[in-house]
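Students often ask why inverse folding is considered easier than folding. One informal answer: many sequences map to the same fold, so there is more than one right answer. In these notes we will look at a single instance of the problem. The structure comes first.
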């Protein structure tokens, strides 16, 4: 297999070999491909987790287990106001 690389990538590979971290350009390429494979696997795991979380949310909606966004923000504002008042009393 022949692969064309940009001058920048060729230079990077040469630097890695010269540094002594790798014995050959092939080792550098293999290491890069292993990292790419790991990234792809992590991305797939994250996508499955995201799809699972979305499905949980969709199931909750179907069961009517939803909360109005305005209500949530109002409750957060009230909690924040109470916390600020409690903090002011301590001073």
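Output (designed amino acids):
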């Amino acid at each position: 297999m022949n692969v064309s690389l940009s001058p920048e990538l060729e230079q990077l590979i040469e630097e890695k070999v010269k540094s002594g971290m790798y014995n050959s350009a092939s080792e550098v390429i293999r290491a890069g491909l292993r990292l790419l494979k790991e990234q792809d696997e992590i991305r797939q795991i994250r996508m499955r987790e995201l799809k699972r979380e979305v499905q949980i949310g969709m199931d909750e909606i179907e069961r009517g287990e939803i909360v109005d966004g305005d209500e949530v923000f109002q409750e957060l504002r009230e909690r924040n106001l109470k916390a600020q008042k409690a903090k002011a009393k301590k001073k």
